[in-house]
User: Fold these one by one.
Assistant:
Number 1:
Amino acid sequence: MRIDLHTHSTASDGTDSPAGLVRNAAAAGLDVVALTDHDTVRGHAEAIAALPEGLTLVTGAELSCRIDGVSMHLLAYLFDPDEPELARERELVRDDRVPRARTMVRKLQDLGVPIEWERVARIAGDGSVGRPHIATALVELGVVETVSDAFTPEWLANGGRAYAEKHELDPFDAIRLVKAAGGVTVFAHPAAVKRGEVVPESSIARFAAAGLDGIEVDHMDHDEPIRARLRGLARELGLLTTGSSDYHGSRKPVALGTYTTDPEIYGEITRRATGAFPVPGTGGPRRT
């Protein structure tokens, strides 16, 4: 089995529609794919309707969190999307995205960048506007060569010159809310130092004590020494380890299935979940 547990669609900041994403996942030879758009489940229904036979969808979201002034992301899998307290928190985060993005555009303008809000809004379309959309605008304007180049202290990295904070969940609250909604939690790219400051390993130990299920180890932003260290930490703390592409379509240079999760780990995630269940594909074209 080939299992990719972290992808994004146009419901947040990917470039594939939810339907296009599951079709592309099947074409890439995946058996299981998780749709984990930022702070939203809006793409799930479209993805399920288009799900090709032979591909299983894991519903989820990537929740924006902050601890001690450091931003972090928590992958939440197979939770009940209608659980009211978690739904309310996701809405608060989403509602803060537009004011935050407008603030970053103004900061870029103050830095002399000829960026306009209308360009960013066009790029975001119906998705939840975020830094990748602003980064794409910087690429279009020739300010940086790639989206990744925009995520530096010079521009949009955490604490960067044009960075602006947004409403984010306390990770301990997020773990509690996801568990109450029957879901499973995995700390996304916990050591992605190129994105900015990361939480210390002592905090990961505290998350584990609070009920965190796992950490994402195999990720494009982790080199081999980091992966080895994270695997050791996971063994020490009794955490599951996952791998995934963090696919954003054409917005990032990583393909679906570049990194994958062990089937036994996937099985344990599904065993722990009670809020929702993986969806086997029946609505789309048969895989060949």
Number 2:
Amino acid sequence: MSVVPAGALPAGVLTAEEADPPRPAALGPRARLLPSLAAVYRAQLSRARVARIPLLFVATFQSVGIMILMRGVVDGGGEARAVVAGSSVLVVAFVALNLLAQYFGQLRASGGLDHYATLPVPPAAVVLGAAGAYASFTVPGTVVTAVVGCALFGLPLAHLWILAAVIPLAGAALAGLGAALGLLAPRPELATLLGQLGMSAALLLGVLPPERMPEAVRLVRDLLPSTYGVEAFARTFAPHPDWAHVLGDLAVCGVVGVISLAVATWAYRRAAVR
């Protein structure tokens, strides 16, 4: 088989490469949000299961201890409702706000965001998957705290089913805030500090009865995302709950959750490209 130089070919005759130029390989379809979210959620849940269970015990023990201390100060009524509701939501704040801020702060400092950036998953799936996994750990501790609090203060257990709405909505709002703090903090130590300050705010402004707070502190309390979850839960302890106000508080908590998770997704994109 002889080889003929391209220059020796007659005009109008093309080589094989010129006649059929190579085409770029077709890219695979973009990963969809829901399957990616489920994959990230399962991965985060299995990874954090062993490490987070002791911390969840600490969060539950802390909330129960606070209620026992407040039992000597608060007898009943609206103040008891605020203490039990605030202590229950505090478990969510400890895990979803404090621990998630630390996780994303360490992930950014160690270069772990580069691993997620190479995966074919949308940024929203990474943030929502991690937030959902951390918020899932709060369910047992929140339920235990609520039951113990009702037994301590003599509150009814009939409407504890409202926790099925309070935990995911308050968890979304606090997890989005925690993820944003961890991703925007320039150093992991600062992310840990911000997470601790956020949890302390949820403790002081959520557990203490609002009737005993100065007006300026009440305004700050209204800015805290977990406040509306606390208010919704506390209203259900009344003999005749005002369900319109309960749904209104839950709606506000849900809107804040959407906004905070959107901010966390933007912070993730910003941190991943640096």
Number 3:
Amino acid sequence: MYHTWMRFFTPGPSHHRLGLVCLGVGLQYGALPTVGPRTLDSHVAVVISTGGGWYAGPDGRRTTVTAPALLWLTPGVPHHYGPDPDTGWDEGFVGFAGPATATYTELGYIEPGRPVVPLADATGPRAVVARIVRAARRDNPLLEVETGAAVHELLVALRRARADLTPAGNQVLKALARDACLPMSVADHAARHGMTTAELRAAVRRVAGCSPKDYLLGIRLGRAKELLAATELPVAAVARRVGYDDPAYFSRLFTRRVGMAPIRFRAQEGRTVPGGWSDRIPDPDDPPVIERPHPPQDMSPHTPPDRA
């Protein structure tokens, strides 16, 4: 016995230009029928929360699937899969397409060569699938945009839930973020962690989807923007604060990556305030209470307005 609910969408050309569109969503559980063999024209993420089964790719060899797990079904790749007939499984699937899939693949969020991905926890991805399900009512005027935005969120949630993203890898990223503005090369950072440059590159690519150089550069430029916007430090001093001894090189790099010179960025984004900005990340669910001064009380006798 099994249960199935699914809904499919047909976004228009303007929605596709947003980068990602959701083509369908479904929830199924139980001893589901075998899927395929088949080949799709779009991507599908199948999030398996409980149970187990198997997956077979183009070569026909079966890979065991044990929940929590993700099945990547990618365009043009023949596949065949199904749950164990005795235990079944609980799955949520989301179909999607769009030009942004190429970039997500380049960054490692979509893995065509790895169709079965163990997850540490399916709770986060399933919560996003549930939001897509709730948005899927036919009278929702925001349907295409709301579900398309949720696909971006789903890809992030799936990346975060991967079982191979170990705490050790996250610790390396935390250390890089902490030391990003020190005048150190990538080789220096690798040596500090007892790694070769190639090992550090592989670790950062696996967890963050980019090279150590790009990861460090993003943090440095973010900090430089904060200093330019929140202080009156000269550009040369800002450059030194974020790890660049040559202010001319810093200005060229900033201009190339940001699209404007540091001085122009400051002119547009300057927010100098008494006491400076806070480094503490606020909790959106618990905003600070701002005490406002009470207006002075008028102690003079009340005078009624003139009457005509």
Number 4:
Amino acid sequence: MKILISADMEGATGVTWPADVLPGTPQWERCRSMFTSDVDAAVRGFFAAGADEVLINEAHWTMRNLLLEKLDERVEMLTGKHKSLSMVEGAQRADVDGIAYIGYHTGAGTEGVLAHTYLANTLTGVWADGVRASEGYLNTLVVAELGVPVILVTGDDRTIEDAKGYAPEAEGVAVKDYVSRYAAICRTPTRTAADIESAAQRAAPLAVRHTPQSPEPHTIEIEFDAEHLVGAATVVPGVEPAGERRVAFTSPSAYEAIRAFKAVTTVVSSAVEEQYG
């Protein structure tokens, strides 16, 4: 049994504020240990339940946040940027049986601690085939196409509710309860680590790789907070205006859709000015 962990930070224990997840800030340094604790708890749970291998893919910002030296010695970690499948890099490997989303969050324009989709701001909504889509939803389209089931999700309580829409069989652990985008009722790391470890043990039997799905088209629609970003986004081939502050594109597979989405967000982020967006 080989488990892949996609590790994001906004949904980690104790995280409620932008500085908690911005590399280089004192708060980020403090929260890295709690983020690492969440991930390591999942690792211990999976190994306790019989996993042979666990691979962590760092999925937050610079993708250099976890404290490798604090993790279980049996684990391996993929760290750094510019990966083909970004947040779910590694799922394309034929030996991965299941994936866990640790530290995830809700999508742009919805309730949730530090809610966003790929970009911290700028995007006010993302829809996949007409369904409002968080990062978890988008990533699940990709791993489902590869035959890899989502078996565990951790984050705030709104994230666990969101996950029921794209991974209804997965175990879920709420490490904090949403109050506002920048406030939450938080559990202590000791408590959340125990909860995550237990959930990972329960989730491990769900790690049974399925037959990969036949690729099918997906239409992605993106709404921005400023009209000029429509012009920036449509530089990407296949991306067209789709209404006020919106663009849309259709890709032949989830793999191509997530790569096109990443291209759009990269281009758009370069068109955002510091003060006026």
